[in-house]
Amino acid sequence: MQLICCGLRICELCSESKLKLQRQCPFCTAPGIPEVKYDRGFRRELESLSLKCPKCNDQWFGLFTDLPRHLNNHYDLECENCGEKFIFSQQVEKHLNENCKKRLVECPLVFLHCSNEVIYEQMNQHCLSDQHQNCLIQFIKTLIPQTSQKHSNLALETLLDEQYRRMLTNYIEKIDSIVQEIDPILGKCSRLSSEGQQFEAGIQEVRAQCVKFKESFDKNEKLAENINQILANMNKLLHEIKSMSMVDLKLISSDNTYKFKVNILSIIDNEQAVQSEPVHTSQSGYKLALSCSIYLDQQNHARYVSISFIILCGEFDTILSWPFVYPVTLAILDLTKAKRNIEYSIPWHSRTAPLHQPLRNQNTVIHIERFCSVDTLIKNRNSYLQDDFIFIQMHIDFMEPGANVTFDKDRPMITEDSIQRSIVTNIATK
């Protein structure tokens, strides 16, 4: 900084702390409080000055402008009261004496044996304490008799200045009024103390509620973590399902049908059932199969093609809906343009065990013993046989689930006579 009166340069800190106490310039004796201005020229000289760090034992050397940034690494002196950190010991000393809110200061009533030292930021609270208030009251009570006695003595002295006597009388009256107001103030202090206790009880209750809220929050957070873990496991499972190779799976066609090619003459000669390969409704769908055999009616000396529908145990049964509610239609295909297929629709019922989730390798088969007469196929071999093979088609209607379809509970699952009659009628209409 630079003095305006004489142009001398002085320290900025000194100008703030000492010049305000002067009544004239200490250098040129100009009257009045010395005025200063910011010295820009000296500032430029300082910024171009090279110097050593006073904290590094001459280990750092640089420009003055870089010194503040370097000194940020030297905040290693800590205030023992509040923990604030400083660079130089002078800063710590000034902080402890003037600025620290946790420094110890004497109570103004220390001469009345009030607390010797009080934390600075708690001084207001201390002044409202019972100890401080009692000391103040005792001081006022001891002052009144002394003042009254002095007033009596002064009344006897005729040479006492009248103005001083009136002033003293005024002070005594004020003290008397203060003494009269002490009791209401003490009552208010008692009321404030009671309200403070109520507030403290309310605060304790709020703290207890906060603890309960935190416990509830921790439980909810743990539950959320468990849910997130479950979702992560589900996403991982879905990813594994999607990435799983399905090359070996046989799927139904896009029109929800599956065709099973059977050598009917071979079955007739060997009298053994032939089962299709497993077929899936989708890559993660139901696992099904068809079976074809010859049923011999000993009583009527007739042979019938018998077809079975089987639900197999699949890899994804646990994530599928059960029971199997979709209508299934089995048919022996007419290979001519007439398309007079021999069909049978499997009725659905929720209590039908073969339509529920398999508990072993496969469910009990839905067996249609008299699906079609062998003689009918042989007689119409041009319509149903191709090189001694018949084609059995399975169609699943996923658009019309059977959950809302009701059937007569007394209707048997397989009605042989009605099936036979429908087949004969179908053949007769050709």
From TrEMBL:
Cited Pfam families: TRAF-mep_MATH
Positions of the MATH domain: 255-396
Top-level taxonomic group: Eukaryota
Stored Gene3D superfamilies: Apoptosis, Tumor Necrosis Factor Receptor Associated Protein 2, Chain A, Zinc/RING finger domain, C3HC4 (zinc finger)
Name of the featured protein: MATH domain-containing protein
Organism name: Rotaria socialis
Lineage: Eukaryota, Metazoa, Spiralia, Gnathifera, Rotifera
